Amino acid sequence: MTPLRSKVRCEIAALLAVFFLGGCASLAPPVQRVDQITPEGAGDTEIEQNVRELLADAKDESAAVYLQNGVDAFAARLAAVERSTRSVDAQYYLFHNDITGNLFAERLLTAAQRGIRVRLLLDDMGTQGQDDYLLALDAHPNIDIRIFNPFANRKYRALEYLYRFGIVTRRMHNKSLIIDGAAAITGGRNIGDEYFDAHHQSNFLDMDVLIFGPAVTDVSAQFDQYWNSPLSYDIDILSGTEESPEDIQRQWQELHEFAESQKDNLYIETLRATPFLEYLNEKRLPISIGPTTVLADLPQKVREPLFEEETHLGPALWEYFRESATELVILNPYFIPGEKGVDALAQAVARGCRVIVLTNSLAANDVAAVHGHYSKYRKPLIQAGVELYELKLDRPYSRVGQELDSAQAVKMGLHVKTFVFDREKTFIGSLNLDPRSVYQNTELGVIIDDAEMANEIATLALELLPDVAYRVELDNSGSLMWHGKDYETGESIKLDHEPDAGIFLRLFAFISRILPVESQL
User: Which of 278, 307, 393, 464 has the fewest CB atoms found within 10 Å of its own CB?
Assistant: First the structure.
């Protein structure tokens, strides 16, 4: 062997050793710390006074406003943080470093700079490459950032899926924003352009709910549970690096300059023009008032065996499914009911309950493997009498009431996690009806007991179905058929294959379907 070849082999061996040893990094033990609990308000903030006035005649009930529109949902978040006078607690699965992500981060920084205590709790799935960004925010004395169930290796994560499989694969999927402990926004949206109708290629149909009253205490309590969990690590300790004061000031200034540069952006103009802000300022939001139940998985769920349900929200939620007598509307993007789910929906139909399911078509689904496994249950669901719809890929109109510009996204995907029970109660949350949400990840949602809201959401959904979705049925030979309507001509469409999906996408979904990975989806 030549000396040169020997040297090259030694260098390769050294690089491999560094890679594998780095990949097998382990987390430091959780630091001993005093629990932080959101303090009870003194009732003297503007939000608390408004809530007290709003719920003066309601005993142990909460107020709720559902946020169907992405622009309204983002405007609500910015307005909520801007109106905070004591604290902001934000909990998200994904926090993108894009237009809306940076605008939201800048609004949190501005709140901190005027004395508001800000706590930001993020799952670690979407934070790769963002440690410096998060450290700069965390450096403000009024901002604390923690990462839930983190990866030990901050740069190279792939190997952790091998030696920490079953640990790093279980995530915090909860979404909540709590203002002064008096108002909260929760639902399906992460922080990112595609969740707020700000993306120029594809946006999600989604739903949140803005709530006031006693239910906020429960949303805040679950945040505290996750914040104080040993599974939540302070970003500065986790990262092990330190930003210089000059770098911190520079990044803060860049955030403020970015926000300033966006003031003439057409999307920001649309935000300012949304009727939601007018209704909010004039105190005439379409409020629903009624008992509101908060359902939340416990943070330790991600360490417990999958089928030990003491930490799960599922058992409490399934009662609402079992009690539905006349109509059950399921809007869910990643829908893998399994045999038990098919049986449960079949039983609902058998007892006279109309069951309508809207989920993503293959073309609209951003996780084709999920669609592959969902597809196994289409025929049994239809044979049981379930009305099955799949969202079209193309959006037929602007959901913000006006055209933004010629580059506005024309593709859409379903991200709503909403169930309407007998047009009396509505669940709005982060839960997908798939094994990952039910057994692996942690989730959060609320059930609003208000017939007016339930009827409005169900009516809106069912009226839109012919325009935005294909009805999936069986023909006389038992084969799947997709029935829809052409946006431009209004003519009926009938297809005998997955709509708008090319051969390679259909092949990938088929291959995924036969792989034994359903429990991970």
Answer: 307
